[in-house]
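S.,

Sequence below, as promised.
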Amino acid sequence: FTMNMYLFVYDLMQFCGHSWIFTNMIIRFMTFGKDSLADTFHSIGLVMRLCQLLSVLEILHILLGIDKSRLLPRFLQITERIIVLFVVINSQEEVQGKYVVCVLFFLWNLLDVVRYTYNMLARMGIYYLPLTWLNFSLCIPLYPLSVLAKGFAICVSLPYFESFGTYSIKLPFPFTFSIYFPYVLKMYLLVLFAGMCFIIQNLFSERMAHLGTGNIKNKRS
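The prediction came back faster than expected:
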């Protein structure tokens, strides 16, 4: 009961954070139109970073056994967001005003509002079938779109990393070793899209496990 209550509070906090971001984005767009897109990161970036840092706890939940989700897919999804948000977007002010940041935040928060709503109800033993279907179906088309947006954000950031030398390291003599960070990002793009194939396969497996005919009948009853 204590662990279940803790997980419910965690899901509630994430739901409130992502709902605020999602609502804020919609209201700002309806009020200011396209002008609001370039200012997205400055308006909601702080709350977005707090929510993503908080999501690292989900890895700990799985390791401790209080969450039965699979570790590797969740680890990949969380680290993807952390790297793109903190390493790519947060470190380059020129990237923060790009429209792709708004698209990426919209996709992330749409998925998370649905996911944390489903999780909160599931903690109480409530399985609302349309919400269950939405939770395990919406991520299948939207997750690949978010990966494409992440890849585009990385590609947009490359010229700035090359110009400013951010995170690039050149060790002094007698060492001849250096790290050119744009090359690291290019290699990470390969990892990002390879991981996407694995995670999509896992999403289909989860959908089948929760929306199979037998499971649907059990939840209806």
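Residues 3-219 form one domain.

Coffee later?
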